[in-house]
UniProtKB/TrEMBL annotation, chain A:
This is Acetyl-CoA synthetase. In the N-terminal section; belongs to the acetate CoA ligase alpha subunit family. Keywords: ATP-binding, Ligase, Nucleotide-binding. The keyword ATP-binding applies. Transmembrane segments: none annotated. Gene3D superfamilies: ATP-grasp fold, A domain, ATP-grasp fold, B domain.
TrEMBL record, chain B:
Residues 15-119 form the CoA-binding domain. Pfam families: CoA_binding_2, Ligase_CoA_2, Succ_CoA_lig. It comes from the Bacteria. This is CoA-binding protein. Keywords: ATP-binding, Ligase, Nucleotide-binding. Gene3D superfamilies: NAD(P)-binding Rossmann-like Domain (3.40.50.720), Succinyl-CoA synthetase domains (3.40.50.261). It comes from Aerophobetes bacterium. SMART domains: CoA_binding. One of its GO terms (molecular function) is acetate-CoA ligase (ADP-forming) activity.
Amino acid sequence: MRKEQILTKIEKFKRCGQRFLPEPVCEEILSFYDIPTPPAQLARESGEAVELARQIGFPVVLKVISPQIIHKSDAGGVMVNLKSEEEVERAFRKILENAKSYNPKAEIEGIYVQKMAPPGREVIIGAVKDAQFGPVVMFGLGGIFVEVLKDVVFRVAPIDEEEAREMVDEIRGLPILKGVRGEKPIDFDSLSQAISNVSRLVVDFPQIEQFDANPVCVYPDRLYAVDARIILE
Amino acid sequence: MQIDLEKKYSELKCFFEPEGVAVIGASRRTEKLGYQVLKNLIDGGSFTLPHLKGFSGKIFPVNPKADEILGLRCYHSVKDIPERVDLAIICIPAKLVPQAVKDCAEKGVKGINIISAGFAEAGEEGKRLQDEFLKIAKEAGIRIVGPNCLGTLYTPTHLNASFGGFLPLPGEVAFISQSGALMDSVIDWAVKEGYGFSAMISYGNKSDLDAPDFIAWAAKDPYTRAITLYIEGFNDGRYFLEVARRVSSIKPIIAFKAGKTSAGTKAVGSHTGSLAGSYQVYKGAFRQSGVIMADTLTQMFDLAKALAHQPPPEGNRVAIVTNGGGNGVMCADFCEELGIQLPSPPSELIEKLDRTGKMHPAWSRSNPLDIIGDAGPERYEVALEAVMSCDVYDGVIVIQTLQTPTRPMEDAKIVVEMHRKYKKPVIAAFVGGKITEPSVKYLEEHGIPNYNDMDRAAKAMWALMEYGKYLKRRGLHEKGTNLN
């Protein structure tokens, strides 16, 4: 996808009054900015989901895709660690049921079949429009660290990889990324690059009001943005 | 955006070094603002203090109903003044301000401090008046400080173009404050502490000029060596970022940001949105632009004192020299918390000191270098000489507690001499009170910042390091860009 195509898509959603971009679109945008996401595809029926899971490789995650369902987990719209065809088939039906009882009017575009990212250290990369500084980018440790300790660092976007690395070095939880108890350090270069790229993304598209890649799973040799959210103005 | 600092400096010079100053709304009645402002210009302040002197240039009171005020000829309009007027200070009711600005435009005034309140901060009608005078000023190329502000003070010209009580002592720190009342009490405190300022600026409603403009001016002001900033918010954060980035590689900027809890962003729906309180974002912007962030106002002035006079260290390795164990340990603790390394003295250094025959046999031989309570000036001299000439250390914190054999003034002279000789950054912690006071004064007059508390001394060293790190980062950056 090219920049103009992204713009066309964003404008289309904006015109429809849809502020939350669907996950597949978020992932397309991320891939344009060289931020890897786990392999995934949209399935419209259970047989298709099983077929996709087989192609992608188990275990997989299934997620509901609906413009009316923003908090997928709250709607019972996410099922993780599915290891077999049977589990995928069952999960597909269950998610549809859950989604319907959560919001009977929800239009279901399909179910997203995504490769389950192996466990890694989780971080958050975000961006938001600040009233005084315009687009700013955020980095922090994910999971409970972001919820409870608010161990996050901001910069005014855009920033280069060197500045992104300074952000990473600034968080209190840095030793976790460097590795404790014999753990290998994470891929700091890929992480810095991803943060810098997110900062460019939000500068390139002023239509974006908020951006979350949470969690981003980081490994010693690469990273995956497992869940992404883009909210338009 | 490339800010032309030179241009900004000459544009704002009228607020600090004006050729002539007019007080529009000057009054004979002592309780009036217009009287106090005029008196501030003539005498440097409305209180009597030995350091005060009046403005070195010409002063013109303006009042349609008076012919003479405080011994000066009074003009009925600013347009009647036969000589050049660079700066006008307006202290008349808000509704009369647009006309006064129009008169200033005709007279060719370059800058106006509008002290009067009752503008954008006071509702719709005030906002309308503010827009009205701004339009006139813009068309005439006049720059405005305020309204609803204290004004500007500049010690080199003894200019108190403000409603502030009196001029501070001369110094090398500029203070730019979003709050006027705060600035008033800072002046009073600073005079008592002997803390000097080059300039003080209260810019109130920032209808035209905002903090970044004054930062840009201060960058080029020859009397300013460090810039301090009290802010609640900017009109344009990105403009600040551009200016601060540019200026912080010339002079250090130290900021205190108030309003930690207010949510600058009301965005919800994402994690990032919920975490983006304005304080966090400011913190990031400050880091990015090399602005040192202080936790308290007092700390801001502490750090500014060090940054104005001491060079940034090459690295983060420090030697502590002390004649008191307790203060040495405390200082070491604070250093560690701040990431300041305290490497052990190399064996050559220990041997060298032992050979001088001036050390106490029980001296610590580790860092902190405890040179024992009976240390006289000679021992301070050999110890300081040893650490300052040693490659292992990038800076020195020298502590002196007052004990019977202690000679504070002689010790202070040695500290100054050693700093001159080796140029390494030195922070002093001559702790005490009455007896120590003259030596502290000597140190500070010779550019060695002194702190009476170990946490403050360590933090000052930390600030020098932070600034040094930023400069280095910028250096690397620029090299990288050149290669491209």
